[in-house]
Write a structure and sequence with these properties.
2 domains; about 20% helix; five-stranded mixed β-sheet
């Protein structure tokens, strides 16, 4: 026969286990949501996976070693014509240059896109620095609209001190535009609470 004290102790133990389980589940959910931004931050800091770096000032050092940067453009579901204005450029390490990509909306209504980017070889990502880039913001094009999108960048001269990249002569900068959902037209917005719905045709009443 159980005593009241034993029952109370058992109940406290069960509550403790339940609280720990809920805390564990909440922690796992939080980690899942944090994983994507943390991974993106990790890539930006380390250049992992060919992720380029974002900087706010130009390089203050230029060395004689040259590198050829090639430009690649892709779309994945965006109805655009998207291409670089030039296919490659040869520059010195540390030299700040500006190039441009061009996008044209081939659709009969506005289309919005967001660009992802990387460089190859992947080890060069930590040394590829962008000062200005259209990939920092979303882009919306009207039907038939054409837009020139500049990219300002330099290759950090510190790359010359990396043994694995001593023989590097070519870097490829690649962009891929993915569609994003733009704001819905006012006519398509759902009516506010308590607001009468709009008739679907011109016949009102019987």
């Amino acid at each position: 026969m159980t005593t009241p004290q034993l029952d109370a102790r058992t109940q406290r133990s069960n509550r403790t286990v339940a609280i720990l389980c809920l805390a564990f589940i909440g922690g796992m959910v939080g980690m899942a949501y944090a994983a994507v931004p943390l991974y993106a931050m990790f890539c930006q800091i380390t250049g992992y996976g060919g992720t380029t770096q974002r900087v706010e000032q130009y390089s203050d050092k230029v060395i004689d070693r040259q590198v050829t940067v090639r430009f690649d453009a892709n779309t994945a579901g965006v109805p655009w014509q998207f291409e670089p204005e030039q296919r490659a450029i040869t520059m010195k390490m540390g030299e700040t240059v500006q190039v441009a990509y061009r996008a044209r909306n081939l659709f009969d209504r506005p289309a919005a896109g967001r660009a992802t980017f990387n460089v190859t070889p992947e080890q060069a990502g930590a040394y590829f620095n962008k000062v200005e880039c259209f990939c920092f913001t979303d882009t919306t094009l009207k039907p038939g609209e054409t837009l020139d999108m500049p990219v300002v960048f330099f290759v950090d001269p510190a790359i010359d001190e990396v043994p694995e990249l001593k023989d590097l002569k070519t870097i490829t900068l690649s962009y891929t535009f993915f569609p994003i959902e733009g704001p819905k037209p006012v006519a398509d917005a759902a009516p506010a609470a308590g607001e009468p719905t709009k008739p679907t045709d011109g016949n009102i009443g019987g």
